[in-house]
Amino acid sequence: MKISGARTEPFAAIRKRALARAGAQVAVRETQTPDSAAFLGLSEADLTPQVQEALTTLMTEIDDLRGEVSRLKLRLNEAQMQADQDVLTPVLNRRAFLREMKRVAAFAQRYGSPASVVFFDLDGFKNVNDRFGHAAGDAALQAVARRLLANVRESDVVGRMGGDEFAVLLAQADKETALSKAASLAAAIQDTPVEFGEWSAPLHISWGVREIAPGSDPEVALAEADAAMFVRKRKQA
Questions:
Q1: CB 41, CB 17: distance < 8 Å
Q2: Do 69 and 120 have their domain in common?
Q3: Residue 226's domain is classified under what CATH number?
Q4: Of 66-70, 71-75, 207-211, which one has max mean pLDDT?
Q5: Are 102 and 44 members of one domain?
Q6: Which of the four, 37, 43, 77, 107, has the lowest number of CB atoms within 10 Å?
Q7: pTM above the 0.85 mark?
Q8: Same-domain pairing of 59 and 163
Q9: What local confidence, expressed as pLDDT, does residue 2 receive?
Q10: Three-state helix/strand/coil letters over 75-125
Q11: What domain count does the chain have?
Q12: pLDDT digits (tens, 9 = 90+) for 153-203
């Protein structure tokens, strides 16, 4: 788009004029810029002490700005991690877990790769809180989260859905693979009692599996895994 009255001039000329306005003594020349200063558009004659001081100040300000941008990115990453992590355990919260399910479902739809979600529920957890207190209950939830994290791959995702409910997102896993993995995860949770002070008790867990259909809704897939867990729990009762 052409603006009426606008002038077109070389960028080097604009740069020189700006430096001159800043108090730099810039020599006007007609010859081509030497390679040693080509990146600035200035010759050795142009680089008077005033110009060098102005450029040094500018580069320092640019370095400071880059450092500040890096610090801001770090703080943003830390804030994102805090927003995604469960408040009690070292796993994702429900919102972040559902976001990861949506990402995996989209990947499955695009590439046809399988994925599954496993829903876990602690049996009799209310009795732990009622008998030994909420601190013991918190210790039990933290133990479950740590054991799940210790027994999944880096590509898998663990989340707490709320209360005593957890879920594991298994990448590249069809239903049969997920059923086998769910059984081994349940065994890892139940095989070692949880200890808190003088209290020590084994944990019992129920689980259900749902293979994630390409492009499926995360909430629906999670609800179906939850329903499969209740079916299994009734059969074992």
A1: no
A2: no
A3: 3.30.70.270
A4: 207-211
A5: no
A6: 77
A7: no
A8: no
A9: 43
A10: HHHHHHHHHHECCCCCCECHHHHHHHHHHHHHHHHHHCCCEEEEEEEEECH
A11: 2
A12: 999 999 999 999 999 999 999 999 999 999 999 999 999 888 888 778 888
